[in-house]
Amino acid sequence: MEKRGQWNSRLTFILAAIGSAVGLGNAWRFPGLAAKHGGGTFLVVYLIAMLLMGIPLLMMEISIARKLRKGAIESMRGIGKKWEPVGWAATSNAFVIVCYYSVVFAWVILMFINSWQFSGMTGKNEPASELFFKLTETTGKIEGFGIPWIVLLCLVIAWALIFFCIRNGANSVGKVVKFTVFAPVVLLVIMAIKGCTMPGAEVGIAKFFIPDPSAFSDPSLWVDATGQVFYSLSIMMAIMFAYGSYLGDDANVAGDAIIIAFSDMAISVLSGIVMFATMGGTGMLDSITDSGIATAFIVYPQAIVHLTDIGWLNALFGAIFYLMLITLAIDSAFSIVEGVSAAISDKFHIKPKKVTIAVCVIAGIISLLFVTQAGLAWLDIVDNWVNSFNLIIIGVLECIAIGWTFNLRKVLKEVNKNTKRFHAPYWWFSLSIRVISPVMLAGLLIWNVSTLFTQNGGSYGDYPIWAQIAAGWAVTLLVFVSGFIAKLIVNKKKKNGFVEDEVVWKD
After folding, report:
1. In terms of C-beta distances under 8 Å and separation of at least 24 residues, what long-range contacts does 307-314 make, across chains too?
2. I need a labelling partner for 423 at 20 to 30 A (CA). Which of 300, 471, 493, 506 fits?
3. 175 pLDDT tier (thresholds 50, 70, 90)
4. What are residue 211's phi and psi, to 5 degrees?
5. Using CA atoms, how far apart are residues 13 and 27, in angstroms rounded to an integer?
6. 469-478 pLDDT, tens per residue?
7. What 8-state DSSP symbol labels residue 214?
């Protein structure tokens, strides 16, 4: 095996982890949920969920991987051999995510390339909102399997960028994140300045920051805030195990996790300022939605054509907006591939670059489904099952494995190793991993199941049941049986001389 790669500095690791955590959800889902739940009210609950659940879970994954020097699969095996399938589930689920996340990345590239078209749409809502559908030729239904050449080209560009960023693991990632983490912040600041200087922007800013006390009693607020924290930090997706495994013994996990978590939240808030100020300035505050696709490709284009009376200037701001989304998407996309690649490489003793190439090629082929005319519908189904069920179940299982079947004080010792100022207290860490996180996640799962079966009759959207079974339930089944399938493969390889690593937590 090659010597395991390492981050060349603490800053590089922090930037890589922030880049992974900060993604498209920060730019479009966070502001949408804030609009849905009384602005400042959502911010307060989000902060509570971050402190009680997000930060401890982030510390947990990074510290375990740093100690064992392994990706998700072998790290969970180090916790207990019976828990290896959980590591496989996290890795398999991440693979599914990158298959369609790469397509969203491609769509953002597509809109960036075509942002010049906004110059001829000043004040015209309809053509602006229809541009995405015109370019992708999407039907929104399980109908049509043609692929527009321009969309295919953007998908190829997306995958080429993803591979370029992670071709040499931690080494190449470290070089890329020095640009891709700061670039979206600069672009967001430019957009925030523009938004805040528009007449009516103050109404939007007030709506974003001033809490609505009556919203605290809405249980969906707590469900959505918990879910956003969970999804936003890239936990339970094999990523933080991979990134943590590249850390040196001198890493300050406790301090770094806090920096990562609050940087993630800060960029979410900055995105909220951009969205609320811009929508307030264009008189579209009521149009903000928690649907990311709708926000980025339908609602915001309408705001773009109302920013000024100068067509080319609107097109310029459109280009800045989609360039910002590109820089947000790329970090998250390549970090998912790195999480999958590192886990499989560790398990089967294959050179990381070979695994990375294989993952990109296979996932790239599968992603073709999502750029067809029916692609948006397929993506919607897969995304719902991946986020509403798979990720949450993996989170609950990780908490049970590490909090209830392993010595949690050993994990906390790793968290606090090298910490000079802040030491995570055992009562807080234990309460979060053992009680709060699994209970909140289980509650979120029950809420999602209840919504699906009691409110919607067991059907998601207007899609055919066979499509929901194929892209939803079947994918979920494959994710959770992947570990057992892998075990059969390993046992067969053992007959040909393959030897599994002994992964042991040594005090």
Report:
1. 307/194, 307/198, 307/278, 307/281, 307/282, 308/122, 309/122, 309/123, 310/122, 311/118, 311/119, 311/120, 311/121, 311/122, 312/119, 314/118, 314/119, 314/121, 314/122
2. 506
3. confident
4. -70, 150
5. 22
6. 999 999 999 9
7. G
Angstrom distance (rounded) from CA 150 to CA 110: 8
Six-digit token string for 161: 């960028």
SS3 of residue 39 by DSSP: strand
**378-424 per-position pLDDT tens digit:** 999 999 999 999 999 999 999 999 999 999 999 999 999 998 888 99
Let me know: does 2 contact 352? Beta carbons within 8 Å: yes
- C-alpha 219/C-alpha 244 separation (Å) is 34
| pLDDT value at residue 451 | 92
| Residue where the block lists tokens 């920013």 | 307
CA–CA dist 332, 338 (Å, integer) = 10
Is residue 292 within 8 A of residue 124, CB to CB? The reply is no
What is the predicted pLDDT for the residue at 3?
61
Task: Find the radius of gyration of the CA atoms of the chain.
Answer: 22
| 28-41 burial code (b ≥16 CB/10 A, e <16) | bbbbbbbbbbbbbb
Which sign, positive or negative, has the C-alpha torsion 478, 29, 329, 285?
positive
